[in-house]
Amino acid sequence: MAKEKKVYLISSGDFRDSANEVCWPKQEETLKAVKAAFTKLGVKTDVFPKYDAKKKHGFVNRQCVGTEIFSKIDPNAPVVVVLSCWAYSHHVSGALQTHKGPILLLGNFDGTWPGLVALLNLAGTLDRLGVKHARLWSETFAKDDAFMKNLKTWVGGGEVKHDMSHVTDAAKLKLSASAASFGERLAKDIKTERRIMGQFDPGCMGMLNAVIDPGKLGAAGMPIEYLNQSDLLAEMDLVTEVEAQNTLNWLVKKGAWFDWGHDTFSQLVHGQVMSQMKMYIAAGRIYERYGLSAIGIPYQLGLMRCVPASDLVEGMLNNSDRPDIVSLETKKVVGKGKPLPHFNEGDIGSGVPQMLMNEIYQRKKMAPETTLHDVRWGRQWRDKFVWVFLISGAAPPAHFGGWKHTKVYRQAPMYFPKGGGTCSGVSKPGVITWARFYEQFGQLGMDCGTGEVLELPEAEVQDRLKKTCEVWPIANVHIPGYDRDQLMASHMSNHITIGYGDILQELVSTCQHLGIPTRVAGDVRNKLR
Known about the structure:
By secondary structure, this protein is α/β, with parallel strands linked by helices. It is built from 15 helices and 18 strands. Helix 3 packs across helix 4 (115-129) and helix 9 (241-254) packs across helix 10 (270-289). It starts with 5 loop residues before the first strand and ends in an 8-residue tail after the last strand.
């Protein structure tokens, strides 16, 4: 690289051109900043793809576009994937699997669009595929001394080594006797009885880090039931209008607030939510039919062209207090009074910890609700770095304090053309356990720790929502010792799973007895030495 003094900047983006067009100005701004940083180091840059005036953006928006671009680049040349908005990882990951030159994933640390989310997604995907790469992030690029030092290191040798002292192998830590015994019993039950994980059409969200080897999962007692989105639609057709309306009436009586409008193209209307009620009932019936322990609907490509969003559905499924779903086969209520754990976007890397945490919480008679969130952004608040965990709507109302604190807004047309409601609110204060399950260079792994959802002043909360997405559920989380640079250096996904209450030792023990290598991240590891 030192001889060439030239790098290729690749703009990877969304499949949906409606989103790419809206996000392009931020990508242009980011590309300008990245170019300036490389110029400061005396390195020339060339950007691919070129701006398309007809599409009004310059993003890689298909895997075939990515492979065509890389076919024209020297396979030994250094490449930088520049990320400032959501990007489907497989648009470039396939080409990167055969690329021989140094690879850098570079994200803007900015809440406007999910750039850092895309960085973590692609990093997790490349680890899943066994592709070596480096990752960097910045708010100010050329003005960021620490970033420039790391970028210079990468230019000089194609690698960047981050401080990983915030992560500890759980095998080196000491668990309480009760937690060790608890995990051994639960793991034995899982391996004896199995826990079937229902995953609809994995990969359609462009998150290959969400697709994990079924052989390895089955060997850990968690076989996959691969489901088809078309079957979900067929099951929705069997739900009557009366069943759907009664389910909606239940939410209204519980105090859920709906941002009703009249324009289906831009507002939330009755028909959209009725479709969501049918999806809720259909998903519950599929859950029961296949004997599942968790279910994941990846609402995007496919479903986005057919029905409204799944997010309100997902929040309902993840909640203990939810409308009854009556099985067509047994005529019995499915999982009455309990969550039917749902992993948003079909991400099995969240499905596994959600299933495990749900069982641990229930056995310990604690609130069992779990969800995943995007690691969307974060900034300092007083003396703490506080993360903005944000997801499109799958968080359970229990995390907000109940249905009366839950708001349902229409999903943005740029991502959700057929609309549908969110399951939105501000997560209540309290101690949480967090986790992420993954596959890295052929080996399963689990990272976990504890943190705290903080109650911030209303003005601070609203500013954080405005800087990210105002209609999505938010959790303002502080994880001691897992601040910006620690998480960005090591986190194995764009997603993080959370639940209320400290069950860290029980989770670690269960994973260890299932044969899953486990790491504890953040300051909590120091309490277990």
